[in-house]
Write a structure and sequence with these properties.
By secondary structure, the chain is mostly beta strands. It folds into two domains: about 1-50 and about 165-200, no CATH class; about 65-160, Thrombin, subunit H (Beta Barrel), CATH 2.40.10. Helices cover about 10% and strands about 35% of the residues. The protein has two helices and nine strands; from the N terminus they run E-E-E-E-E-E-E-E-E-H-H. Strands 4-5-6-9-8-7 form a six-stranded antiparallel barrel. The chain has a three-stranded antiparallel sheet with strand order 1-2-3, with no helix packed on it. Strand 5 and strand 6 form a beta hairpin. The longest helix has 16 residues, at about 165-180. The two termini are about 25 Å apart.
Length: about 210
Amino acid sequence: MSFALTGEQGLPHNSHCFLVTPGWALGSGGPGSRHDLAMIFLDPKDQSKFVASRFTQPAAAGTAVTYVGYGWDEKFGVDHGIKREGHNQIGEVTKDGVIQTYGGSTGKPMVREGDSGGPLYIDNKLAGIASALQYGVKKSVCDGTTCGDKVVDVGFHVDLTEQRTISFIDRGLQALKSGGIDPAAGKGCASRNKSEFIRALQSKSYLGGS
């Protein structure tokens, strides 16, 4: 896989090695769940650069958040490819490790189709990853001191402050540091080869944990 960061020319970054959260599966373990997360390890020769640090405090309802994405722009009717930034607040943090934000009838911006995989920031630090969107959900919504039921659109984000997700990330980083993961050799991680990827997902020893 080759890709570029915003402002870069060509596709200067390369990866042949990644890990998917244990428990990932289409359906209950896929988009919209805490399992919808992968770690990509860049090739050793890659000249990577720092993008953002992780938010280290537990995410909480009511906290101000910032989206960044290239998906559908509802206001201008533009489909994908234009960088957008929006500001909202957390509506709910579930016990299953998902941050939810509300849009639609709330009048506040939120993730749209094409934003999946994009960042959710708290105080300019990475707190979540956009995963899914659901339209027309009844939720208890608070606006200032007033709370009430509304039908809203819900954005789902993998909560990077949730302990099981933190453990998955930390285990991957430790394995990389200790040599358990070698991106150049494809050691300890799944390659872009489909059959190897499926075997890795089915492996009980796949970084362990849940």
